[in-house]
Specification:
The protein is mostly beta strands. Helix content is 4%, strand content 50%. The chain is built from 2 helices and 32 strands. Strands 23, 24, 25, 26, 27, 28, 29, 30, 31 and 32 form a 10-stranded antiparallel β-sheet that branches. A 5-stranded mixed β-sheet has the order 4-3-2-1-20, with helices on one face. The mean pLDDT is 95. The structure holds beta-D-fructofuranose. Beta-D-fructofuranose binds next to strand 1, strand 5, strand 9 and strand 13.
Length: 505
C-alpha cells in the first residue's frame, strides 16, 4: 500500500502542471488531494521545511498524514514524499519540528543533530467508540535533513490522562533562559505548557486562557514565541479558534504578554479579542523555528472549515498563505502584531506596470487590462486631501464578475467583497457578507499593499497593522483591474504595481 502511495505521489508531483483553473501561482498548494494546516515548520541546513496536514487519497479531509515540501527562499517549493503516515496509535494531526542542536533526545549526534517532530495522534477508532482520550502527543525524528522519519518507539510522550476530548496541536521550542524545551498545546478551553530536558519526558508547567480571549469555538494550533519591541522582549501567543472568527468560521486570535519559562501572563486580560487577520481565509497559522537572524516567519492555511471541503478546485484542495514576517508595533490601541510579506517575495516581480505619484482619482482609474492574477499593488492615499466616501481596487472579468478590496472612509474600515466574484453557491457560508476590518492608525497617510493570485488576495493595510486574506473563484479569469473612488475624489500620493512570475513555471 505504502509503495503505491509513494509511486502515485511521485507521478502526481512530476506531472502536475499547476495550470488548472484557480490554481494558485504564487502560493504553495499540493500537487493533488486534500491539505489543511501547515505543520513542522523548521529551518535546517539551508532549507525551510513545510509539512502539512494531508490526505493523499481524496480531496476531502481523511486519515491525516504529514505531506512535505522544502524551499530555499520561502517562495519556491519542492515537493517531497509524505513524511509521516498514520499508524496503530492514530492519524497524524498538527504539530511542529525543531533542530535538537545539543542532541538532548539522543536521536542523533552532537555533530549531526536530529530534527525532532512533535505531533498529535488522533485515534479515530477511539473517538468512534465514544472514548474521550483519543488524542495524545507523539514524536518522530530524522537524521537525514527531514527526508525520512522514524517514530519514537515509546510514543505517546504525553498521554491523555484526563480524558480531554480536544488535546492537540503541539508547538515545541527551546527556551534559552531556562535551558529546556517547552511545548504548548490546546487542551479544551485553555492551552497547556509542558517542559522537558530531552523532548521525551514532559512535565506540566502551567495553563492559560480559560478566562481570556474568544471562546466562541474550539481552541486549536497555539504558537508561543518572543518578539522585541523598544529593546524589550514580549511574548506572542497565537491561537486559532473555530468557529467564531471576526468574519465567520475559522480565524486566529492572539495574546501579547510575558513568559518566564513556566507561565504565560497576558498583558490585556480584559481587552477585546485581538485578531491576526480579518479575512475568512487564514487559519491554523504558526511560525518557523530556527530561522536565521531570528526572523519570525509565519504561514497559515488559506481556507476556512466553513467551506474548505467544498471549494471548486480539482485535483487539489487548499493553498497556504504567502509567508509573512511578524513583528510588534506600538499603535494608539496598544502593542499589536504587525504582518508583512517576507522580503523574498520581491524576487517574483517581473515588470513594473504602474509607478505614479500625486494623482487624483474621481470615479475610476484603470490599472491594467492584463490578467490581474499574480499582481502586487501598493497605494498610498492622502486622507487629508481625500473627500470620497469609499475607495479601493476592483478586479473583474468580461462576465461582469468582480472582487473588491476597499476602504470605507465614514466607518473607518477596510473591506473585501467576494459576493459577486463568480462561483459562490458551492457553500451557503462562502459569500454571505462583505468582510470588514477596523482601521487602527489615525495617520492621514493610508497604505494598501495587496497581492492578487488566481484565486486569492492578501491585503496588508497601514504597513501591516491590518491583514485580510480571502479566496475567490471567478468562472473565468479576472482580466482587468481598476482603482475606484466613490462619492468624491481620492488623492493617491504614491502608486506602484508589478506583474509577478509564477513560482511553478
Ligand atoms: C485545525 C485542526 C487541528 C488538527 C488538524 C486535523 O485545522 O483541526 O486542530 O490537528 O486540523 O487535520
Amino acid at each position: 500500500m505504502k509503495i503505491v502511495f509513494i509511486i502515485l505521489f511521485v507521478v502526481m508531483s512530476t506531472f502536475a502542471q499547476y495550470d488548472e483553473p484557480h490554481r494558485p501561482q504564487l502560493h504553495f498548494s499540493p500537487p493533488a488531494n486534500w491539505m489543511n494546516d501547515p505543520n513542522g515548520m523548521v529551518y535546517h541546513n539551508g532549507e525551510y521545511h513545510l509539512f502539512y496536514q494531508y490526505y493523499p487519497n481524496d480531496i476531502v479531509w481523511g486519515p491525516m498524514h504529514w505531506g512535505h515540501a522544502v524551499s530555499r527562499d520561502l517562495i519556491h517549493w519542492k515537493h517531497l514524499p509524505i513524511a509521516l503516515e498514520p499508524d496503530k496509535l492514530g492519524y497524524i494531526f498538527s504539530g511542529s519540528a525543531v533542530v535538537d542542536k545539543q542532541n538532548s533526545s539522543g536521536f542523533g549526534t552532537k555533530n549531526k543533530p536530529p530534527l525532532v517532530a512533535m505531533f498529535t495522534y488522533h485515534l479515530m477508532e477511539g473517538e468512534k467508540a465514544g472514548r474521550k482520550n483519543f488524542q495524545y502527543q507523539g514524536i518522530a525524528y530524522s537524521t537525514d535533513n527531514g527526508r525520512t522519519w522514524t517514530k519514537y518507539d515509546k510514543n505517546p510522550v504525553i498521554p491523555n490522562t484526563e480524558n480531554l476530548k480536544d488535546f492537540r496541536d503541539t508547538k515545541v521550542f527551546w527556551h534559552e533562559e531556562s535551558k529546556r524545551w517547552i511545548v504548548v498545546l490546546a487542551a479544551g478551553d485553555h492551552i497547556r505548557l509542558y517542559s522537558s530536558s530531552n523532548l521525551k519526558t514532559w512535565k506540566v508547567e502551567s495553563e492559560f486562557g480559560k478566562m481570556h480571549g474568544s471562546h466562541a469555538g474550539v481552541w486549536e494550533c497555539p504558537d508561543l514565541f518572543p518578539l522585541k519591541i523598544n529593546g524589550k522582549t514580549k511574548w506572542v501567543l497565537l491561537l486559532s479558534i473555530n468557529p467564531g472568527g471576526p468574519s465567520g468560521g475559522s480565524a486566529t486570535q492572539y495574546f501579547i504578554g510575558d513568559f518566564d519559562g513556566k507561565t504565560f501572563k497576558n498583558d490585556n486580560p480584559s481587552k477585546k479579542t485581538l485578531w491576526l487577520d480579518y479575512g475568512r481565509d487564514n487559519y491554523a497559522g504558526v511560525t518557523w523555528s530556527n530561522v536565521p537572524g531570528g526572523r519570525r516567519a509565519f504561514l497559515g492555511w488559506m481556507s476556512n472549515w466553513d467551506y474548505a471541503q467544498k471549494v471548486p478546485t480539482s485535483p487539489w484542495r487548499s493553498a497556504m498563505t504567502l509567508p509573512r514576517e511578524l513583528s510588534l508595533k506600538q499603535t494608539s490601541d496598544g502593542i499589536r502584531v504587525n504582518q508583512k510579506l517576507v522580503k523574498e517575495i520581491e524576487i517574483l516581480r517581473v515588470s513594473e506596470m504602474l509607478a505614479a505619484k500625486d494623482m487624483i482619482v474621481t470615479g475610476s482609474l484603470e490599472i491594467s487590462k492584463a490578467k490581474p492574477s499574480q499582481i502586487e499593488m501598493i497605494f498610498e492615499v492622502d486622507l487629508s486631501k481625500t473627500d470620497s466616501k469609499d475607495f479601493g481596487i476592483e478586479v473583474s472579468n468580461k462576465k461582469g464578475e468582480t472582487f473588491t478590496v476597499g476602504y470605507n472612509v465614514g466607518s473607518r474600515s477596510f473591506y473585501t467583497d467576494r459576493r459577486k466574484a463568480g462561483k459562490t453557491t458551492f457553500s451557503e457560508e462562502f459569500a454571505k457578507d462583505m468582510h470588514t476590518a477596523p482601521r487602527v492608525s489615525r495617520n492621514s497617510k493610508l497604505r494598501l499593499h495587496l497581492i492578487f493570485d488566481n484565486s486569492s488576495v492578501e491585503l496588508f493595510a497601514d504597513d501591516g497593522e491590518i491583514a485580510m486574506t480571502d479566496i475567490f473563484f471567478p468562472t473565468e479569469d479576472f482580466t482587468g483591474s481598476r482603482f475606484f473612488s466613490t462619492g468624491g475624489k481620492t488623492r493617491i500620493s504614491n502608486a506602484k504595481a508589478w506583474n509577478l512570475r509564477s513560482i511553478w513555471h
